Amino acid sequence: MAARPGWLYRHVRTPVEPTSGPEATAAAPHAYSRAVRTATIPALVGMGALMSIQSKINGQLAHELGTGLRAGALAAVISFGSGLLVLTVVVLARASARRGVVRLYRGVAGGEVPVWLILGGLAGAMFVASQGLTVPVLGVALFVVASVAGQSTGGLFVDHAGVGPGGPRPVTRGRIIGAALAVVAVALSAYGSQTAAVPLAALALALLPLIASMGNSVQQAINGRVAVYAGPWPTTFNNFAVGFLALVIFFGVSLLVPGQLIGLPGQWWLYLGGVIGICYIWSASILVRIHGVLILGLCAICGQVVSAIVIDLIFAPDELTTYSYVAAAITLLGVVIATLLRPRRTVSG
């Protein structure tokens, strides 16, 4: 017998979410008014712009650190490590955050919280690693379009399965069209970013941020659940702790393959990736309750696409082609369609 939509939501809701009180109301599907949803849209767009800036920073950091896989891995370690350091200070300074961290890990140890719900940091680690590995080659604009495809398709299925705290959300015609247009955009942008002799190589490299962004959709969904249980600061702290450990292991493995590390760069702004990541994960753990994974991702995409084009215009104008602008336009069209074409509500009773 085929699984019904939302089976995963029903399976994990009880262990990690309250059944009564204001927190239960906040976690319930469609619990927020239209005014609240509309007012938070600028925050989603701003999150997307921050991710484009983080991609540029981590990509440039990897370039300055050296060559090969180890440079990208070390850039990711520095990004997550600096974020974890800041979060440790925040958690130690806030009593509510300390209590939330203790509650979260006690919940895991006691079986109240499934272990897989605290592993969202692995997806974040993969995404940050993909920034250092691909942005120096693809540019920010193409990286963002690839991540858009992953966010769109991943958010579509994650929302349908009901992994997030808002419960199952229907797969509508608008959502399918929006996700499909994002995939078309990534293929077009990848083709236009390279010479005609090597378009497949560009597409292959673009698969890394695409897959990492699919993982990000799962991360945002389970982070929303954990935030209801323990709070946004403990959720963000756990993500960085898990991701940092995974990236340290990844960096150790990267030392086995060819590459060279030159040394730490002196530009201070190259070390801001972790702080930007904190802002994104903390905000997403709250806003995903209101909008769901797909709408959260698609609204953030607006900020990502526009800011990515601006960043490449400033730092790498030669990497922008007509394909880049057309792909960005297709992506934004997909966002509009997915956001505006919603199913008609029916009244039961």
Describe the model:
With 349 residues, this protein is mainly α. The protein has one domain (66-340). The chain contains 13 helices and two strands; from the N terminus they run ααααβαααααααβαα. It has helices spanning 7-16, 22-27, 34-39, 41-65, 68-93, 95-109, 120-138, 140-161, 173-193, 199-230, 232-254, 273-315, 322-340, and strands at 66-67, 259-261. A two-stranded antiparallel sheet has the order 1-2. The chain starts with 6 loop residues before the first helix and ends in a 9-residue tail after the last helix. Residues 1-30, 195-199 and 345-349 have low confidence and may be disordered.
Task: Please provide a brief summary of the model.
A two-stranded antiparallel sheet has the order 1-2. With 349 residues, it is an all-alpha fold. The chain is 77% helix and 1% strand.
Strand content: under 5%
Unreliable spans are: 1-30, 195-199, 345-349
Q: How many helical stretches?
A: 13
What's the quaternary structure here?
single chain
Work out the number of β strands.
Answer: 2
Task: Give the overall shape, derived from the CA principal axes.
Answer: globular
Helical percent range? over 70%
- H/E series: HHHHEHHHHHHHEHH
Largest sheet, spatial ordering of strands: 1-2
Domain count: the total is 1
Distance between the termini: 29 Å
Radius of gyration: 20 Å
- What is the typical, i.e. mean, pLDDT? 77
Biggest beta sheet summary: 2 strands, antiparallel
The computed structural class is: mainly alpha
